[in-house]
């Protein structure tokens, strides 16, 4: 089973993503900000990260930049999910180390197709 | 006999205030190349009633995170119109860390935020409206629920409404139920809105039992 870490300060968003992902057969953990996500990523290896941008303490860009610097941690792919749709934010997301960028509100099918794509589960 | 000046040893603390602590001296130090000197200047300017303007100007090009945090805290302490405008301007920053820091500080200023929140909640920029809802998250003010109901009743942007709805599911009462049901009907094709509306309604009903 693949393990996914959902990082978002909004409890409802975390629960929404958890429901979608668990129904599709993934194991899900949650983190409420970038600091907690960094701590969790050091003790458990995740196959994928779903990362919000605006969070207190450490935002999504900060998390990804720091995470990508960790040489002894498996560098799994990350989807950045945010309310901001501006091109500038996308560029920042990719520069920080995101593999894909999604604009909220996410649709279940769209989220799952991106997850499967990054996990290499898309049929040839 | 020549006088020999007595040598004294003096330990100079790096953070020691080195120039007079009057307003003009602090303004000079606010632009010093050493971030520690700038940080001390900010901390002392927070005690000066007319300091908001120079602090806001410095904030616009300050790149040291600790000095920036000190400026934001100083503006919160000063709390006048110029200081509040400076904090609000951070919500339009392209830097997420600065925006989030400003949001966290504005959450702690319920009575200073009250006169400006309506303007923020109806700002032309939907991102600013979302950040305004974020400010309401832990704002200890009696009108929070009413402000959130107003958002989900009127705001045309799904993400602004979703953010307000998330918060209403935590702080909402039975007063919010009609607005939540209308919101669900307004965005029937948005799975997230339907999910969070159902969750909010369930929590409110459970809370009222």
How is this fold's topology laid out?
The complex is a heterodimer of chains A (124) and B (209).
Chain A: E1 3-7, H1 11-23, E2 27-31, H2 34-43, E3 48-52, H3 60-69, E4 78-82, H4 87-96, E5 100-103, H5 108-118
Parallel strand pairs in A: 1-2, 1-3, 3-4, 4-5
Chain B: H1 23-29, H2 35-45, H3 52-61, H4 65-78, H5 81-89, H6 96-106, H7 110-121, H8 126-136, H9 144-154, H10 158-171, H11 177-186, H12 191-208
Quick overview:
The complex is a heterodimer of chains A (124) and B (209). Chain A has 124 residues and is α/β, with parallel strands linked by helices.
Mind explaining what this structure looks like?
- The complex is a heterodimer of chains A (124) and B (209).
- Helices cover 44% and strands 19% of the residues of chain A.
- With 124 residues, chain A is α/β, with parallel strands linked by helices.
- Chain A has a 5-stranded parallel beta sheet, with helices on both faces.
- In chain A, helix 3 runs parallel beside helix 4.
- Chain A starts with a strand and ends in a 6-residue tail after the last helix.
- Chain B folds into 2 domains: 13-106, Leucine-rich Repeat Variant (Alpha Horseshoe); 108-209, Leucine-rich Repeat Variant.
- In chain B, helix 4 runs antiparallel to helix 5 (81-89), helix 4 (65-78) packs parallel to helix 6 (96-106) and helix 10 runs parallel beside helix 12.
- The A-B interface holds A 10-13, 15-16, 19, 53-56, 59-62, 83-84, 86, 88-89, 92, 104-108 and B 94, 96-97, 99-100, 103-104, 126-127, 130-131, 134, 158-159, 162-163, 165-166, 169-170, 190-193, 195-196, 199.
Number of helices of chain A: 5
- The CATH class of the largest domain in chain B is identified as Mainly Alpha
Largest interface, and how many residues on either side?
A: A-B, 26 and 27 residues
Helical content of chain B, roughly? 55-70%
Q: How many E strands of chain A?
A: 5
CATH architectural designation of chain A: 3-Layer(aba) Sandwich
The largest sheet of chain B is: none
Write down the secondary-structure element order of chain B.
HHHHHHHHHHHH
Indicate the CATH architecture of the largest domain in chain B.
Answer: Alpha Horseshoe
User: Fraction of residues of chain A in helices?
Assistant: 40-55%
What is the beta-strand fraction of chain A? 15-25%
Shape of chain A: globular
CATH H-level homologous superfamily name of chain A: Response regulator
Instruction: Give the strand order of the largest sheet of chain A, numbering strands 1, 2, ... along the chain.
Output: 2-1-3-4-5
End-to-end Cα distance of chain A, whole Å, is 21 Å
Query: So how many helices of chain B?
Result: 12
């Amino acid at each position: 089973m693949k393990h996914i870490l959902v990082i978002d300060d909004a409890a409802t968003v975390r629960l929404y993503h958890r429901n979608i992902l668990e129904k599709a057969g993934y194991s899900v953990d949650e983190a409420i900000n970038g600091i907690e996500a960094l701590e969790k990523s050091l003790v458990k290896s995740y196959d994928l990260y779903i990362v919000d941008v605006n969070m207190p303490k450490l935002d999504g860009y900060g998390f990804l930049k720091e995470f990508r610097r960790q040489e002894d941690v498996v560098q799994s792919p990350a989807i950045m999910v945010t309310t901001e749709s501006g091109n500038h934010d996308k560029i920042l997301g990719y520069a920080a180390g995101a593999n894909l960028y999604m604009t909220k509100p996410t649709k279940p099918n769209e989220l799952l197709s991106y997850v499967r794509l990054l996990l290499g589960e898309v049929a040839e | 006999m020549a006088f020999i000046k007595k040598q004294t040893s003096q330990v100079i603390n790096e953070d020691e205030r080195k120039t007079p602590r009057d307003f003009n001296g602090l303004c000079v130090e606010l632009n010093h190349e050493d971030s520690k000197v700038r940080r001390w200047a900010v901390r002392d300017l927070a005690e000066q009633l007319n300091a908001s303007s120079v602090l806001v100007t410095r904030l616009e090009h300050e790149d040291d995170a600790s000095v920036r945090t000190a400026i934001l805290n100083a503006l919160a302490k000063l709390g006048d119109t110029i200081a509040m405008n400076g904090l609000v301007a951070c919500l339009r920053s392209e830097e997420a860390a600065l925006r989030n820091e400003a949001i966290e500080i504005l959450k702690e200023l319920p009575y200073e935020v009250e006169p400006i929140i309506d303007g923020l909640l109806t700002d032309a920029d939907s991102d600013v409206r979302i950040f305004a809802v974020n400010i309401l998250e832990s704002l200890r003010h009696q009108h929070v629920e009413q402000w959130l109901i107003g958002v989900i009743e009127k705001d045309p942007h799904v993400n602004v409404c979703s953010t307000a709805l998330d918060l209403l599911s935590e702080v909402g009462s039975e007063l919010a139920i009609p607005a939540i049901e209308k919101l669900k009907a307004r965005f029937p094709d948005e799975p997230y809105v339907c999910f969070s509306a159902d969750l909010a309604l369930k929590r409110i009903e459970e809370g009222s039992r």
